[in-house]
Design a protein that fits this description.
Elements (H helix, E strand, L loop, with lengths): L10 E5 L4 H12 L3 E6 L8 E2 L2 E2 L1 E4 L5 H15 L4 E4 L14 H29 L2 E7 L10 H20 L5 E7 L7 H5 L2 H8 L10 H12 L10 E4 L14 H9 L10
Parallel strand pairs: 1-2, 1-6, 2-5, 6-7, 7-8, 8-9
Antiparallel strand pairs: 3-4
Length: about 270
């Protein structure tokens, strides 16, 4: 099999593709030759482009089930097919759990989980016809404590569970996978962490020493949707640069780890 990935003639739908991770996903599929449709609340000032080709935007509130379903149906009707659905839209403000209202809990669940469930259900018959796949963008918050964004972490954990269940329920025709995002260097990342120095301090807690770029997550999505991943389904692929330094190392740099290892005896495994 050739290792080249060519999505020419294939149609990809991405929720929330105007900025951040979603834009990286849209641009990666455009670079691979796909026809890409994306949605969001507001059209970006500049549409994602690659190789002289631009993605098509539709204004959709994915929390509205009717709008969500109509968007998927319109894409399939205009193109005559749908090959890939990427459920990317999501997010949450920071706040203590006990301060959240029932409406807040519902809103976080709608944007991070129910919107993906609705879009995936609407896309099923079209993906079945093309032997396509679903890719859900989740988060490291789904598998580790997420204080301050507890409902977000819980919703992303639900999305990972849905990923695994549908991978079995829809096999062998439709593949369903997830990309678990670590910290990402989006357009607003520095402002989110306060200052450039605070941003750099957070980045240093990642073993690879930096945050991911949106393009790097997009490239993994392309790989998962491609024939190179034909036997991959039900997988949750972390794109997190190795996660976080273990607390007992106190974010020790690699060089210090090597120095510590040099002080370990080769007999008892204790420091000299």
């Amino acid at each position: 099999m050739s290792l080249a990935i060519d999505f020419a003639g294939r149609v990809v739908a991405v929720t929330g593709g105007g900025r951040g991770v979603g834009r990286g996903v849209v641009e990666a599929f455009l670079a691979a030759g796909a026809d890409v449709e994306f949605c969001g609340r507001t059209e970006p000032e500049q549409l994602p482009q690659r190789g002289g080709r631009a993605a098509r935007f539709t204004a959709v509130d994915v929390r509205n089930a009717a709008q969500n379903q109509a968007w998927i149906a319109d894409i399939a009707a205009r193109h005559g097919r749908l090959d890939v659905l990427v459920n990317n839209v999501g997010g949450s403000p920071f706040g203590r759990f006990e301060a959240g209202s029932p409406r807040y809990f519902q809103a976080i669940t709608e944007i991070n989980f129910l919107s993906a469930a609705v879009a995936t259900s609407a896309a099923f018959e079209h993906l079945l016809a093309t032997g396509g796949s679903v890719i859900n963008i989740t988060s490291i918050s789904a598998r580790r404590p997420s204080p301050g964004t507890a409902m977000y972490g819980a919703a992303k954990a639900a999305l990972e569970s849905l990923t695994r269940s549908l991978a079995v329920e829809w096999a062998p025709e439709v593949r369903v996978n997830a990309v678990s995002s670590g910290l990402v260097a989006t357009e607003s990342a520095v402002d989110h962490y306060g200052t450039a120095e605070q941003y750099a301090q957070v980045a240093r807690t990642i073993p690879r020493g930096r945050m991911a770029s949106p393009d790097e997550l997009g490239n993994v999505c392309v790989m998962l949707a491609s024939p190179l991943s034909a036997h991959v389904t039900g997988a949750v692929i972390p794109v997190d640069g190795g996660g976080e330094w273990p607390a007992f190392l106190s974010h020790t740099p690699n060089a210090d780890i090597v120095q510590q290892a040099d002080r370990v005896t080769d007999t008892g495994g204790t420091t000299t």
